[in-house]
Target: Hydrolase
Amino acid sequence: MKVALGQFAVSKVWQENADICVNLIKRAQEGGADLLVLPEGILARDITDPDIVLKTAQPLDGPFMTQLLAESSKSALTIMMCVHVPTGGQRVFNNLVTIRGGEIISQYLKLHLYDAFAAKESANVQPGSVIPELIEVAGLKLGLMTCYDLRFPELARRHAVDGADVLILPAAWVKGPGKEAHWDVLVTARALENTCYIVAVGECGERNIGASMVVDPLGVAVVRAGEVPALIFAEIEPKRISHARSVLPVLANRRFARPELA
Model:
């Protein structure tokens, strides 16, 4: 499976972000990708306005997703990204949406909200309550996670026990002392401890680190972006997964039960 990681700086204006996404979709198609992963919160971002997710949330039949779905209908490329959608109440959902062939094929509402490092995502976002099912792309099974989920090993392990080959993580990882080191350690750990590839795609710009990366099942960083917008590609090799699980059979050797949502 060939994966494309589309890292960019999200603006305040949804139309500008939609145009960037369409461009990334076209370039990923031209690059022969089977999967394109985009960052978290790509509808709009403004570091001066903590309530922007409330003001800019759109339903999945709104103009932002309609534009992306129209572009998606032109190929078999699978595309994943996180957008904020209305709940019908006072908060919004942080929704990891997967589209293919002009249709929405899955949704995952973020379980772990970023109430840490003086931030409080839960002020505006309602958490999900369902572990997402695996998605198949190019013969491989993918488990879905979003940003702060990375700090909780249970979801990644649940996906691995359920049969995931690859973990997908759109993110908007906030800058701060030691935060880029946290990203490196945690992305690598989730891959290595589950003998899965992980595709982690970060938003870049004024607030967030970027640093999108693919780490293989033995903890080797296959490709990595810097702090500026980029489209990078990586090959996901099934033989590498089989090799890792033969020499490091942690999934077979584990003594703990399958993680369940509390």
